[in-house]
Amino acid sequence: MIVNDERAFEIAKRFHPYWHNLKQGAQKLQSRNSHQVLGWDLNTPSKFIICWTKKGKGKGGTGQAIRIATEYKIPVFDAGRFDSVENVRLMLKEFLIEYSYLEEDNFKLENKK
Fold it and tell me: Domain residues of the chain, as ranges?
């Protein structure tokens, strides 16, 4: 995605702790997160974010997306917080039910071994 919308840069700048240290290419990559979270027009936000960061710490470019989502009150599920695939599956189910994106009766966990 090529980012040309100045608003995406403004949003990214607000949420990146070291924006002034980034080269232009890195700023474009960080600005891309604005669109990933808030839509191409920056007015159609994602309903929720599912991501993975190391140990669920929310670092790196994904951390930028998490900071934007948090500010815009978009629920975030960071799979890196969990120690096993089974726990990710269980907690993702709870997350989706909690935010009404899934009805409990329509979700079946199957062991795939």
Answer: 6-81, 83-113
